[in-house]
Amino acid sequence: MAKEKTVKKKSIEKIPGSNLKPLIFAALFAALTAAVAPFKIPLGFTPVPITLQTLVVLMSGAMLGPYYGALSMILYVVVGALGLPVFAGGGSGIGAVLGPTGGYLISYFIAAFVIGWIIYKKKTSNLIKYGSLFILTILLLIIFSDLILNLEIMKIWDKQINNYVPLVSLLSDIQRYIFAFIGVAVTALLVGIVVFLINRKSVSLDTVLAMVVGTLIIYLFGAVQGKIVTQLPWSIVFVGWVLPFIIGDTIKLLAAAYIAKTIDIKKYVR
Predict the structure, then answer these.
(1) 269: pLDDT confidence band, cut at 50, 70 and 90?
(2) Alpha-carbon distance 230 to 241, whole Å?
(3) What is the pTM of this model?
(4) What is the 3-state secondary structure (H, E, C) of the chain?
(5) Distances, alpha carbon 13 to alpha carbons 7, 18, 22, in Å
(6) Can you say how many angstroms the Cα of residue 116 is from the centroid of all Cα atoms in its chain?
(7) Deepest of 36, 228, 250, 270, by most Cβ within 10 A of its Cβ?
(8) What's the number of CA atoms in the CB half-sphere (13 Å) around residue 226?
(9) Is the dihedral of CA 106, 108, 112, 115 positive or negative?
(10) What is d(CA 146, CA 191) in angstroms, rounded to the nearest whole number?
């Protein structure tokens, strides 16, 4: 009889939503996302601001797992859509979800789920994990190639002529090379930090790769909805919805991976 109870208990714990403690942590992570939302740095050339919500999104998937991580982000978005000012800079309402930056909000629960699934299931194809790293590398190469070779891929709004122009046309040759050099140096520094942290076992490689996948999901949903709502060319969407955030999101990714490695939430939800 006792053996039957033990088996039954284990099977219940595997069912999403069957344990109260993880639900409480899901609510706490939703509240944490709302708590960091007031931090907002507007950028003049795009409606997308620099925020801290993605830091919590990455943490939620890595620390709560796929189901509760996704649930925490669903709670966050639903509460904001219902009118509470929990979105970036105190925004709220269904209009924010359906607006030009709403794709990011929609992506949060998907990114959290995928991150948790990759980390906890550990059966994800290496093609997905390392493929995401390859895509991120390609994005960086596009940026550096455009700056160095003057390919005129990235475009930005020019107030003087009231139109979009190639970003490189607003820079002198010296400025282009300086920006390219700084970008390469910062990228190399971040790669070195990642290798250092992994070697010291301060972060997990699987967690870092999972968060890269999650970050690309956020970019994808954000950019696609931005394109649909604004009808802007993809080159402009790339500059406004993806480009300005790659370096900052990489730093947030490392912070999230470090926190996830350092704080073991599992022992609190037993």
Answers:
(1) low
(2) 12
(3) 0.86
(4) CHHHHHHHHHHHHCCCCCCHHHHHHHHHHHHHHHHHCCCEEEECCEEEEEECHHHHHHHHHHHHHHHHHHHHHHHHHHHHHCCCCCCHHHCCCHHHHHCCCHHHHHHHHHHHHHHHHHHHHCCCCHHHHHHHHHHHHHHHHHHHHHHHHCCCCCEEEECCCCEEEEHHHHCCHHHHHHHHHHHHHHHHHHHHHHHHHHHCCCCCHHHHHHHHHHHHHHHHHHHHHHHHHHCCCHHHHHHHHHHHHHHHHHHHHHHHHHHHHHCCHHHHCC
(5) 10, 6, 10
(6) 13
(7) 250
(8) 24
(9) positive
(10) 21
> Residue range 125-132: average pLDDT?
80
Closest by CA position to 115, among listed 68, 66, 149, 160: 66
Contact 183, 194 (CB under 8 A): no
Confirm if 168 and 146 have CB atoms less than 8 A apart: yes
Residue 267 backbone dihedrals phi, psi, to 5 degrees: -70, -20
Q: What CA–CA distance (Å, rounded) separates 36 from 28? A: 12
Which residues, including other chains, have CB under 8 Å from residue 187's CB and lie 6 or more apart? Answer: 140, 247
Domains of the chain: 18-265 (1.10.1760.20)
Beta bridge partners of 50: 41
* Closest CA relative to residue 233, chosen from 177, 179, 173, 157: 157
Which two structure tokens, joined as six digits, stand for 15? 């069912």
Least confident of 13-22, 148-157, 202-211, 228-237: 13-22
